[in-house]
Structures are given as C-alpha cells and as structure tokens.
Design goal:
Elements: E1 6-11, E2 19-22, E3 28-31, E4 35-38, H1 44-56, E5 65-71, E6 75-79, E7 85-87, H2 95-101, H3 114-148, H4 160-169, H5 171-239, H6 245-321, E8 332-344, E9 347-353, E10 364-373
Parallel strand pairs: 6-10
Antiparallel strand pairs: 1-2, 1-5, 3-4, 6-7, 8-9, 8-10
Helix pairs in contact: 3-4, 3-5, 3-6, 4-5, 5-6
Length: 376
Amino acid sequence: MAPGDRIEVSVFARPDISKQYRIRTDGTISMHLIGSIQAADLSPAKLETRIEARLGVFFDEPVSTTLEVADWRPVVVSGDVMEPGAIVFRPGTDVRAALAEAGGAIRGLPTGDSGSAMRVQSEVGDLAQYEARLAPLLAERSRLIGETTAGQEPTDGRDPVLAAMEDLVGGEVAAELVAAQALLAERETQQSILEKAARQTQQALAASEADAYGTRQEIIGEQLALTRDELIKQEELLERRISIASKVLDLRQDATSLRSEELEAVGLQAAAEQKRDRAIAGQQLAEATRARDVAVRLTQLEAEITELNARIAQSRVFIENFGGAALLMDAKVRTETYMVYRRTGTGLRRQEVGADMLLHPGDILEVTVATEPLGQ
C-alpha cells in the first residue's frame, strides 16, 4: 500500500475505531487509542497484524481486526489511447486490461497528439459507416437499372458495380448483397408475371363475353327481322280479312320481346367491352406505375449515393490531412510499446513492459503506437 490508498478497518465490538482511513503523504494513518501507525509499503495482512498488536495493549482479551483496501490509487493511462486518463485499479489488472479500460490503442496515428488522433479515429468510424451504407444502395440501383434495361445485351468483363461494392465491404459481403437483390428481383418478376397473367385472363374472359353477346345480338337481330317481315305480311292480310287479328297480335308481341332482348344484348356487349378495356388499361397503368416507381427510386438512390460519395471523399481528405493516411492503407506494420512509470523508495522508475505485465496502484502506463505501410 502507499499514500493515497483508502483502507477500511473493522475492530470487533469497537465501532468508535472501526472506520475508513486514507493513508497520508507521510505513509501513516491515525487511529484512536494507538495514534499514528505506518501503513505505506505494507501489505493489508501485515498492517492488520500490527494494528491488532497495538490495540492488544489496551484490552485484556485478544482483539479481532479485519482490514480491507476500499480504494486503491488509480492507474493513469496516457499516450496513443482513445480515452487517456485515470482508471480504477483492481488487483490483477495488467497492461492489456488497463488498455481496454482506456478504449484501446489508436491505430496508425502519430504520437503526441491524442486530440487529433481521437478526431481521426472518430472520422474513420464514420467513414466505415458511410461505406457500409453505400454498398447496399449500389446493389439496389444495379437491380433497378437491370429491370429497366431487361432484354439488352449484357456488357463484357467484370461488373463495375460489384467491383465497387467489393472495394467497400469485401467480396463476401458484396456477394451476399448481390444475391439478396437478385432474390428480390426474382420475386418481383414472379409477382409481376402472376399479376399480368391475371389481367390477361380478365381481358380474355371479357373479350369472349363481348363476342358472345355480339353473336347473340346478331341472332336476335335476324329473328327480329324475320318476325317484322312476317308481321307486315299478316297485317296486309288482316286488312284484306284473310288473316286473323290474334296472329298479328302475337307477332307484334314477339317483335317487341325480340327488340328488348336485342337491346339487352347490346348493353351486355358494351359492358363486356368496357370490362375488357379496363383490364387492358389496368395492365398499362400497372406497367406505367412500376416504371414511374422505379424512376423515382432511382432518382432517390442517385441522390443518396451522391451524398454518401461526397461524405466518403470528405472523410478521406480529413483523415489524410490529420495524419491518419495509414488508416486508409490495406497493409500496415503496426507496433505498440508499453512504458510503465512506478514510484519507489528511491524515486520514479521507468520500465518497458509487455501486455501481460501486472500493474500496481498508482502506476502510469504510457502507450506508443507506430504504424508504417508494408515495404517501407
């Protein structure tokens, strides 16, 4: 233990001296009855034994004392880390754990400027998000363009859209995005085929119905013409008193009935033709609506893609200007150096350590990151 540590002492049946004590700068604590006692450079167990011995002078029976460290001095992490500053020390904390508490080492950035490094690291995260958002938009745009150019000859060579997506998110993810868009395109095509077939069936049924009513109209028209001719003859005979009035009356009723049927057939034929025309118009409207929706979505995609490309370009310029160009390289040699500063009885000792090195309370851990492209 050392100055700055806070310990908790519990003495059985003596709440007046059972409390927390901060180790003072001279390495001692001051307790009721026993006064000042050295605590620095002792383990908790040794200090507990000394307190029991000092208290035993004042009591006839042995004193039961327990001692725990309530708060250790913090470990300070500095240098090329995301969140430099003090972290809580816990027994067993090593360099790797302290580095994780400080947010990890900053990748590929110059030392000595943690503020700029953090800004660059944040911008790198934004850049990754922009690129991840851009890839599926490119895949969707490619699918919609393919829909509008269906039937045209395919271009030779590597698909430039797929190449751009692979550069953004890697070949495996790009292939998954393309496969997902292809599946969506297949489902939309199947749905379109089914809807078109249904409308064509409606058109065919309506056309057949119109033809049937047209044929019926012709038959009724022929029957009506014959009935009218016969009616004229019978009316002439009736005037000459050769025909009877009841027969003329029956022919007149037949003519009226046939005329009604003819008018009904005309109306039904017109209705069937309207149904056929609506089915044709529905198909044309569906195709026009789909073409419009695709055009609108393509316009939206172009705007989003343009905006993301602009943000990606700005992020890359920002990263390069602030010394993070190494983060944009695919291949890097990266080294991390850990230096521990520890106070001892003779002063401050400096030592380069590994990631598994156990830290002590009050240690200062300095992290240095060096990044160079391969081949340099």
